[in-house]
Amino acid sequence: MKVLLINGSPRWKGNTNRALEEAAAALEAEGVETELVWIGNKEIRGCIACGICGKTGEKRCVFAEDCCNELIAKAAECDGFIVGSPVYYAGMAGLLRALMDRMFYAGGANFRFK
Ligand SMILES: Cc1cc2nc3c(=O)[nH]c(=O)nc-3n(C[C@H](O)[C@H](O)[C@H](O)COP(=O)(O)O)c2cc1C
Question: How confident is the model at residue 50, as a pLDDT?
Fold first, then answer.
């Protein structure tokens, strides 16, 4: 059993990371393997609804310069997911929202119960 934890804050060692570290420690104490990844603070493209991911069936987004495809591939090996975000104006952080749209649209099956 492995759980992927995604830090959706542009700040690497901030509060979101701290909360995710707590969650990871609790899971590890129960014998669950964890991996904590950070989405970074560089530009993340939003989905442009081109539909190419659906046509190729390769579970990849055409925009390959950020962490989207790497996370889709990691998800295939994980059984559970925890996504952490700072609150930005009563919602999730914009970079994370942009990433999740593409991650789930292109790699949706990798994020479902196996
Ligand atoms: C653009 C921006 C918008 C924010 N909006 C809110 C908000 O609506 N409500 C709130 O409680 N905190 C808000 N915050 C504060 C962050 O959610 C808070 O500092 C959070 O713990 C930061 O997490 P991090 O350390 O992982 O980056 C905002 C911060 C920023 C930079």
Answer: 96
